[in-house]
Structures are given as structure tokens and as C-alpha cells.
Design a protein that fits this description.
By secondary structure, the protein is mainly α. It has 4 helices and no strands.
């Protein structure tokens, strides 16, 4: 997962009980704030678009990004 920064990735795969939560929280913060995350953001948005029941869980900036992609 070259697109995910190493500190975030290490939380996602760590075996500590709350590490995954922290990792995903950091991942979505990263997606919402870092302009260089466009490729990764696109992958996440595409995944959420494939599973409509997940869309309500997107943070509003990503949800807006997702709708923008659908409309184009």
C-alpha cells in the first residue's frame, strides 16, 4: 500500500485492539486534508461508490468529492 503513509499503515495492521480505529481515523483525516492524497482518495471513493450502504459513513468532504465524481 504505497499510497498510505507508513505511520498510518502501521496502525492499520497493528494487533493492538484500538490501533485499527486510530489508523482508519488518521487515514480519513489524511484523505480530507492532504492534496497529495488524490490517488488514494479516488480509490476510497470508488470503493464506497461500489457499496452504497457505506456512503453515509463518508465524511462530508469525501462525500462531496464522491458526488462530484458521479456527476462528471
Amino acid at each position: 500500500m504505497e499510497l498510505i503513509p507508513r505511520p498510518i499503515w502501521s496502525h492499520l495492521i497493528h494487533s493492538e485492539p484500538t490501533a485499527h480505529i486510530k489508523g482508519f481515523r488518521n487515514l480519513f483525516d489524511y484523505l480530507n486534508t492532504e492534496p497529495i492524497a488524490d490517488d488514494l482518495r479516488q480509490l476510497v471513493v470508488n470503493y464506497f461508490n461500489e457499496y452504497p450502504r457505506l456512503q453515509p459513513h463518508l465524511h462530508p468532504p469525501l462525500r462531496g468529492f464522491s458526488l462530484h465524481l458521479i456527476l462528471q
